[in-house]
Specification:
- This protein is mainly α.
- Helix content is 68%, strand content 4%.
- Strands 1-2 form a two-stranded antiparallel ribbon.
- The longest helix is centred in the last third of the chain and has 26 residues.
- It starts with a helix and ends with a helix.
Length: 111
């Protein structure tokens, strides 16, 4: 599984070279990276641990992520107007859900 993931990453990196993004995905991905990086500061974490880690460790990570995806998707356009951060949160929780899925698949393969 890890080998497959590394191969996907290599393909992604090699495909970045000459792409002409139609929807500014490269800019949005950088914005997303900056947003995610900001969640690791003291506001979102306690003693270098995020609350999300404890929720995942407790076996509730997938539901937590899906719930937050729904929450922020439904909130978009209602609270503070079309707040771009709501969409960034949707994507971030989607990324965390993908990570949880990958870890579960690895765990199931080793059983």
């Amino acid at each position: 599984m890890e080998c497959q993931r590394n191969n996907r990453l290599r393909k992604l990196k090699s495909s970045e070279v000459n792409l002409n993004y139609k929807y500014n995905e490269d800019i949005t991905l950088e914005e997303l990276r900056e947003y995610i990086d900001s969640t690791y500061d003291a506001h979102y974490s306690k003693d270098k641990f995020q609350a999300t880690e404890f929720i995942i460790d407790g076996g509730h990570g997938e539901g937590f992520c899906i719930g937050n995806i729904l929450k922020y998707a439904q909130r978009y356009g209602k609270k503070n107007g079309k707040n771009r951060n709501d969409l960034l949160k949707v994507i971030h929780y989607g990324i965390i859900a993908l990570y949880i899925n990958e870890m579960e698949n690895i765990e199931n393969e080793t059983k």
